[in-house]
Amino acid sequence: MRISDAITAYIMSMMEQAEDGAAQLRRNELAEQLGCVPSQITYVLTSRFTPQQGYVVESRRGGGGYIRIRRVAPQREATPLMHIVNSIGDELVPAAAESILQSMVYQGFLSKQAAGVMAAALSDRAYRDVPVETRDRLRASLLKHMLAAYI
After folding, report:
1. b/e map 4-20, b = 16+ CB within 10 Å
2. What is the CB neighbour count within 10 angstroms for residue 32?
3. The overall pTM is greater than 0.85
């Protein structure tokens, strides 16, 4: 198991065990406990616990500082979906596209079948005839348009 997967699993288990469903941690302490550097914790927080994936990460700096992570309850209105569309940006790598789709299935915004079709259309295999330097821009544009049409 990769260290980022181990960090993610640990944080998820903290959230499951917490009464309020929120994990509260100190970055340096968690890094020491898991045998990694604090920047790896930061990487996991910024890449796997994002608003697009249904999480809110709050932090308080200083000596008594902490990081609190909680899952946002899914909503079935167009506003959160448009927030996801607007947050995609101009370029999108395949792993990020897959993560967005998985999160949308988990939150109930997309069916597994729709996400599967979209994932196939966004895979690197689908873009093998497209120049490498334009693939991520095309992928971002296509996902935005598919989600906007799905809403």
Report:
1. eeebbebbeebbeeeee
2. 12
3. no
Q: What span, in angstroms and rounded, lies between the C-alpha atoms of 108 and 104?
A: 6
Per-residue pLDDT tens for 61-98?
Answer: 766 678 889 887 655 555 667 777 777 888 889 988 99
What is the radius of gyration, based on Cα positions, of the chain? 17
Q: How far apart are CA 39 and CA 20, in angstroms?
A: 27
Range of the domain at 146: 78-150
Beta-carbon count within 10 A of 38 CB? 14
pLDDT of residue 56: 82
Are 58 and 98 in a shared domain?
A: no
